[in-house]
Amino acid sequence: MKSFIKEWGLFTLIVAIIIISRWLIWSPVTVDGHSMDPTLHDQERLIMYRTKDIDRFDIVVASEPDGNGKEKLIVKRVIGMPGDTLRFENDVLYINDEKVDESYLKEYRDAFAEDKLQSIYSYNKQFQSTAQIAPAFTLDSNFQPQFTVTISEGQYFLLGDDRLVSLDSRQVGSFSKDAIQGKIIFRMWPLNRIGLF
């Protein structure tokens, strides 16, 4: 009986730790859509670490109301921090008047320059049409390649990496710290792309 309790006691403790940590510390998340391509792909499975310690360029999970007033979770990248002034000029980002390299956009910006993403977007005619008439890869909600945004205190400006198809802070506004659930720390599926962020 002692050995049974000893073996199962340890197992029960491990299970309890996993369940409690799942509730308090981490959460599984599934990517829904193409707004974070090519960094994250549709239906990839991720692990989110619950934290309010958010840094620029973190990939975060935020909540926003959907069309029916229910909460939906989105996965985006933090571009603007509280108090920042962001300026985009023909695919070049300036943060507080300092030029910033967005290396995570290189593949899609190069493809945009080559063929306006027509080969990459071959799976979606609407994406192809949008890219075909776009004057740049990063546009504001009025389809303009030059725009400036000032972020209020306590707010974060979130953008998808696939700027032409992402619905993000350009359309819905900035996100409060309370709306940010945590940041992505690990990709667990598919197995050929597993790894830490």
Provide structural commentary.
- The protein is an alpha+beta fold.
- The protein has a single domain, classed as Umud Fragment, subunit A.
- It contains 4 helices and 12 strands, in the order H-E-E-E-E-E-E-E-H-H-E-E-H-E-E-E.
- The strands form 2 sheets. Strands 1, 2, 3, 4, 9, 10, 11 and 12 form an 8-stranded antiparallel β-sheet that branches.
- The longest helix has 23 residues.
- The chain is globular.
- The chain starts with a helix and ends with a strand.
- The relative contact order is 0.21.
- The model has no long low-confidence stretch (mean pLDDT 91).
List the helices and strands and how they pair.
Elements: H1 2-24, E1 26-30, E2 45-49, E3 59-65, E4 71-80, E5 85-89, E6 92-95, E7 98-100, H2 106-115, H3 125-133, E8 146-150, E9 155-159, H4 169-172, E10 175-176, E11 180-189, E12 195-196
Antiparallel strand pairs: 1-2, 2-11, 3-4, 3-11, 4-9, 5-6, 5-8, 6-7, 9-10, 11-12
